Amino acid sequence: MTMTPTGSIWTIACAGAVMALCGCTDGPTKEKTVAQAQFGSTTYTLLEKDQLKFKDMNRNGVLDPYEDWRLTPEVRADDLIARMTVQEKAGLMLHGTAPANDDPAGIGAGASYDLVALEQLVLSKNINTFITRMSGAAGNLAVEYNKVQKLAERSRLGIPISISTDPRHHFQYTAGASASTTGFSQWPETLGLAAIGSSELVRRFGDIARREYLAVGITQALSPQADLATEPRWSRINGTFGEDADLSKRMVQGYIEGFQDGGSGVHDGSVVAVVKHWVGYGATREGFDGHNYYGRYMTFPGNNFAYHLKPFEGAFAAKAASIMPTYALPDGDITVEGIKLESVAAGFNKAMLTDLLRGKYGFDGVILSDWGITSDCDTNCRNGTPAGTPPSFFGFGTPWGMEDSTRQARYVRGVQAGMDQFGGESDPVYLIQAVQQGLLTEARLNDSARRILLQKFRQGLFEHPFVDEAKAASIVGNADFVKEGLDAQRRSMVLLENKNKILPLAATVKKIYLYGIDAAVARQYGYTVVATPQEADVALLRVNTPYETLHPNYIFGSFQHEGSLAFADGNADYEAIKNAAKFAPATIVTVYLDRPAILANVQDKASAILGNFGVSDVALFDVISGKASPQGKLPFELPSSMAEVAAQLSDVPHDTAHPLYKFGFGLSY
User: Domain check: are 41 and 127 in the same one?
Assistant: First the structure.
């Protein structure tokens, strides 16, 4: 690879297109010093002009405006669009999955990229944005990423690759919602950050995550979730900031300012924040999720749609770069700000995307669809697989409101509604044919292409797309970042019960019975681990919020947490709690609150209850031993019964009749 000079300072005279950059006025020529752009490694031939160096990305031997890093992103994007074919613009509007080797599920989760398959996508189909689901050592991620960018430099115009990811700094791994945390600093779920309630802390988290992402070449974060968890049974609550719009608004703004490196919008050093899901996703009918045909409706019996807009105001204040619309479609007539929503999913809904998002709120960034909205949803996808047949992603799609339309019609409707880029797609033929058939204009594709290119130019990807492979391991998961994540885990815990001030544990407590906890960690804190509650001074149990698998014959329904939130006889965790309470002198329960658990029949059996939102055993023992104290406050209320859950309104917060623990509750010591 050719190495370019870095850090050099050159003096150039104002001329032509760089006059604005130099601040020239009429009269004698003025000079302005300009620092040579730092390229790092590149395969391009370098052009020299005004004693400065530029990449010849299209290999024509001429410095074209889009190659001139002195010009504004707007000027460069306009020049590049004028050079692109319809095929290249269509490819730009697809956000594919980066194919990996040894990946039988086909979701990009292998240990290395399939460069043969990638070459087809990048060089033939002109796709240059991909989600990655790879995990493993940071150094390997960086090496693999650089291979992808080297491939991009072989394309006709040299457009660099953007790599995105679902969240990968938390505890819960769920297909379609998060990625493996391997190697990265580990933090509580966003619910835990909301429990702490500090916008400064969530901004700090975003800043650390930004650095770790950039070290391995991830330049887009498919987060945060600005959805409100107003329906307690919903399976996506763990990725939100809870049910309160004011709290969520503050958290969303801080999160984006961390990832995008400030509140001034995307620039060199930013990771694009893709805020999701516009809007109302959390007001889902009976808590069933919009990935599923049976969960495709959002419903607003409390006429509270406007409340769900509020967290996105935090995103707009932080100048969020991208928005992802929800899968869900309105159940019944909804009018907000004088705008009547259409009876199709948000990705096809012009009222939601153009009239409300771009019109009312003035959003001018990239609108990226959620995955699969243009795909067909076959019989199994709609009705579930026959008994005895495991569900799969084959035949799966989420085109709600347009299930019986053609794939091309979905693309056309999405673009006409305001969509810029389609998630999970890798075939540009539908967009190309739509232009050829007069269903879409090339000018409309230009609008989306410009927004996408502006992000790449502003991030500096055209100048320095490669990462430093040697430094990646020293940045990702370094000791300081891990320490801050661990501290956040401790602080996020919510003390719900502390009878007789049993916590922190007295020095006289020596023998401990464990359930769901690593005995080796307990021994590190000086405890003797015993085999039964009868032998213990105290029993410590880690349990999960109860759930049901109500739709095992649907691919997402087979692993999403649905249904009851109440502990019932036969539930393994509840049986363990009853057994410990019967025999141990004291019982401490920590419950993972991925949804609002009903603790009415746990409250009377536990000496102490700690709510957690993703916490390591080390952080847990720091808190129960008194090395640290829990500071969290509930980001949602905990109901007292499933009858009250069924009676509450899916779009209204804090509305069960007699909550066992109210929103914002949390003890301390």
Answer: no
